[in-house]
Amino acid sequence: MSATWQPDLLGTGYEQHTLELGTDPDGEGRITAVVVRRVPLEDEQPHGAVLYVHGFADYFFQTELADFFAERGLAFYALDLRKSGRARSEGHTAHYVTDLELYDVELERSLELVADEHPDSPVVVVAHSTGGLITPLWLDRRRRAGRTDPVAGLVLNSPWFDLQGKPRMRHAVTQAVRILARIAPLRVLDLPATSVYGDSLHAERGGTWHYDLMLKPLAGFPVTVGWLNAVRRGQARLHRGLDVGVPSLVLRSDKTHYSRTHSPASDRADTVLDVQQIARWAGCLGGETTVQPIEDARHDVFLSLDVPRRRSYDAVDGWLRRLGLTEPFPDPPA
To answer: Which pTM was predicted?
Structure first.
């Protein structure tokens, strides 16, 4: 396939290509997805590539992560899924889908684009949070269809493997959204709003990172019944056991800290997901799986404070070397 690359909102060194996906099967008009690429420097000769997939209420902006992989010989591409980030248009309910399998369309087309630009090269899929649920389900379906190439590895950054809360509460919520999704899929759940995670990240709130608050709001986007039902169905499928067909690395914080207000503890823990659930279900990916807790990491381990962020990069670096997907390179970003 031939991609038409345009300047990206990240500025110099980044370009984007829009994937036209046609009419939304969930009834919200025309939809697209957007692939972003880091333009290789003149002296870079990639021997492989990365395809990155974001989570809920998120989009790709992590240029440090892209540089990390590029320094290790892996060209970097990121996908903003339908109705997410760069791909969300007027009239779209942010991140709304009724079945996670619908994402297979843009995932396959993105992978085809990467493979076309880097023929016969291994591709590492990297995904965060909800993306860390979407991508294993996709790779399991590819494997069952007899396709694994060119994917050679999977890195999951705090994947959303289960619904937070006690078992009785999870069961009740799951049954309720299953029923409501049939009659009012766009109904917004009345959940307590919190910006603790966003406050820990964004530069305007005392954090380190700069990103577009229209694309990644401090308190996230409203959660719809139909979307949560799709997530719960995907999690149930994961719990029955997958086989993604490639080695996996699962990164997570060593602790969870839930709070309605920001504190120093919020900067050294996952304030979004229950990390013990990640540990429990990581074995469901099938095949060779490495689980690496990162002391004091945030929900997005690559947006952590300096020391845990360095540990996260070290873990990925070592894993890539063990798989033979890179050679020793300079130290990861400090």
So the answer is: 0.96
